[in-house]
Amino acid sequence: MGDAVYDGLTGSALAARLGLAACNVHAQCASTMDLAHAAAGRGAPAGTLILANEQTAGRGRGGRRWTSAPGDGVWMTFIERPRTPAGLDVLSLRVGLALAESLDDVAGDRIQLKWPNDLFLRDGKLAGILIEARWRDRSVEWVAIGVGLNVVQAGDVPQARGLAPGVTRLDALDRAVPAVRAAAAREGPLDTGELARFAARDLAVGRRAVQPAAGVVAGVDAGGELLVDTPAGRVACRSGSLVFVEDR
């Protein structure tokens, strides 16, 4: 168990502040996602948060790796134990929407969403989400919800964005933790209200994509699929990365 101090607070103090079952704080780790899976395998309850001051091998979609500088952001993974797998297909979108809405007032601008798991601010990446589930037969045992959020904009990463000046990591946690947990508690597909709220922040609608399908992005559907209008008609994409024409 991590026993480091995070911006002056111990893990137990953070758990009490954030209403969590437990909070394990690490000064440095390879990946909070890996630590979360290990803790869940040992029986860590739902509502456990793994938090690190620094990551040396953070993991993203497709096995991408990156380092996370100490103090510059919030690098965390939640352990949740859903009753059913209903909702897992849309969980990254649901968590992204909840995070964007909870962080708008400390971002200095309106946060936008990019399918399937990124938050953008002024055309730069603010945060990323990674969802990994572990199963036993057809039942989900636990879900690890990883979030990497830039609080301070790294000077050597021009495409990254941070929150407004003066916002602390604790400010971000106070907003992000209840938002993520509320999103994780929901079941089923995205409802009409969620789809409308996502559409209002969707940075991709109307833009030309080359992946995961070539065409004009039309939005997302209730099942979390990306809708793309191609010369052959509208297609729904379940997986892949969204790459725009101008990003090639």
Tell me what the structure shows:
23% of the residues lie in helices and 33% in strands. The chain has 248 residues and is of the alpha+beta class. It folds into 2 domains: 11-199, Bira Bifunctional Protein, Domain 2 (BirA Bifunctional Protein, domain 2, 2-Layer Sandwich); 208-247, no CATH class. The strands form 3 sheets. It has a 7-stranded mixed sheet with strand order 1-2-5-9-8-7-6, with helices on both faces. Strands 13-12-11-10-14 form a 5-stranded antiparallel sheet, covered by helices on one side. It has a two-stranded antiparallel ribbon with strand order 3-4. α3 (91-103) runs antiparallel to α4 (169-185). The longest helix is centred in the C-terminal third of the chain and has 17 residues, at 169-185. The radius of gyration is 18 Å and the shape is globular. The protein starts with 10 loop residues before the first helix and ends with a strand.
- Indicate the low-confidence ranges by residue numbers: none
Structure classification: alpha+beta
CATH architecture of the largest domain: 2-Layer Sandwich
Across the major sheet, the strand order is: 1-2-5-9-8-7-6
Q: What is the global morphology?
A: globular
How many distinct folded domains?
Answer: 2
Q: What is the average of the pLDDT values?
A: 92
Task: Give the helix proportion (percent range).
Answer: 10-25%
Sequence of secondary-structure elements:
HEHEEEEHEEEEHHEEEEE
